[in-house]
Automatic annotation (TrEMBL):
Residues 6-41, 57-92, 99-134, 136-168 form the EF-hand domain. Pfam families: EF-hand_5, EF-hand_7. This is EF-hand domain-containing protein. InterPro entries: CML21-like, EF-hand-dom_pair, EF_Hand_1_Ca_BS, EF_hand_dom. It comes from the Bacteria. SMART domains: EFh.
Length: 182
């Protein structure tokens, strides 16, 4: 199956951002590396419980979501496997939320340096910088996701954005640009 269009472009962008070691594949180690980078970024506010939660949810995300895209069983996911698996709608919204919501919760709790229970603009930009998204693009994403204009993103808003990003073909959905322009 050849996948084209905006949905494929955003998935390719996400693949490239998640390939933390830059070897052209997604592997479990990429998710461990990304979690370590995020934990280091927020080291001043991250206690061991928050750090462990982030690592655990990143690895669970791999184990329950991404790792299953490895069609040839070699322990790594190619760009084609990634795009085709998501584009084929093999992931349902409930299954996505079951894995993604705890992940977004752990990341939000880590990034919530002021302890207000949400992620503000500055915290969001720091998170996105770990993924390789520039500050200007992260600003634009934040503005789009902050639909109630309260200056903060909740776990629910971020989970919904992630669901839109991965599962919606609508390039105009709020979550479509979650990881910047594609």
């Amino acid at each position: 199956m050849i996948v084209a269009g905006a949905h494929a472009r955003k998935l390719i962008r996400r693949f490239e951002l998640m390939d933390a070691n830059g070897n052209g594949y997604l592997e479990r180690e990429d998710y461990a590396l990304l979690s370590r980078r995020l934990i280091e970024e927020f080291a001043g506010s991250a206690g061991p419980a928050k750090a462990n939660a982030v690592l655990d949810t990143y690895l669970r995300y791999w184990d329950e979501f991404i790792g299953h895209m490895d069609r040839d069983g070699d322990g790594r996911v190619t760009k084609g496997e990634f795009v085709q698996a998501i584009s084929a709608k093999t992931i349902d919204a409930a299954g996505f939320d079951r894995v993604a919501e705890p992940h977004f919760r752990a990341v939000c709790e880590l990034a919530d340096t002021d302890g207000d229970g949400s992620v503000n603009r500055a915290e969001f930009i720091r998170v996105m910088s770990v993924y390789g998204v520039g500050a200007q693009d992260a600003e634009a994403v934040f503005a789009r996701l902050d639909s109630d204009a309260d200056g903060a993103l909740t776990v629910g808003e971020l989970t919904a954005a992630g669901r839109d990003f991965y599962l919606s073909d609508d390039d105009g959905s709020n979550g479509s640009g979650l990881f910047g322009p594609h």
